[in-house]
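Order emerges. As here.
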Amino acid sequence: MQTETPRRRPIRLTRRGRIALVAAGAVVVGTSIAVPVALSGGQPAEPRSLTVPEGWRADQVYTAVDKALALRAGTTRKEVPTMRLALPADARGNPEGYLLPATYPVTGETTPRSLLSSMVTNANKRFRASPVAAGASGAGTLNLYQTVTIASIVQAEADNRTDMGKVARVIHNRLDQGMPLQMDSTINYVLNRSTSNSGNNDDARVDTPYNTYTRTGLPPTPIASPGDEALRAAVAPPPGDWLYFVTVKPGDTRFTVEYEDHQRNVTEFNQNRSPDTRSPSPTP
């Protein structure tokens, strides 16, 4: 992550605030989800499965479902609007972020609807079981859907537990101060790519609700399926005043409070970067 907005006095440009825990503890995690297996002639169907990794976008899940069920490409995506999945109202029928990462059994009777319904149903169980409640702050409140959205950004921006917590803290701090998040990951999402061209300033001017450079607050939906560590980070980030971060090189992500310190780190990042270097967020 890399951000070019100098720190400002707290302003209330967003109604979103911090999250408070109802009780101490982390989100309970499971490694797989039990999905009913259809029986044929009283015997279990041939064991097959579909694994949804953490950080996958809905489009990636749709493609994997089509392949797992030997369907024509685009079939699952086309059927989603008719599935009536058990999504929160804020999602407006978009299951992004609610296709829970796990391993799902696949049988001869499995359909796109049954697979996605299982993912969403188990996501709801997982998220609602979390010790999370909306917490009041001077900037407002965050609901569960917004928490999942934060977790999805954290998932895209960090690759280890420590950095996830700090990235989440940066997001909360920026929301509290009414600063734009300036996350490359949200622009990558709408442009359907996984890395950024940090030398292309046109990216930061893309006209989309997912452009967190030009708009304050969170994007309208999650940008991927967050894993449990990312969700924990979004729920209970560590204390800190960080407003900026940049991955100077693999394994070396630096979080700073002052814009001047961040600029020095950005300079070092630019000196180290290569064409295949993953661009941190936000990017100038």
In short: Confidence is low (pLDDT under 50) at residues 8-41, 133-140, 276-280. The chain is about 35% helix and 10% strand. The two ends are 10 Å apart (CA to CA).
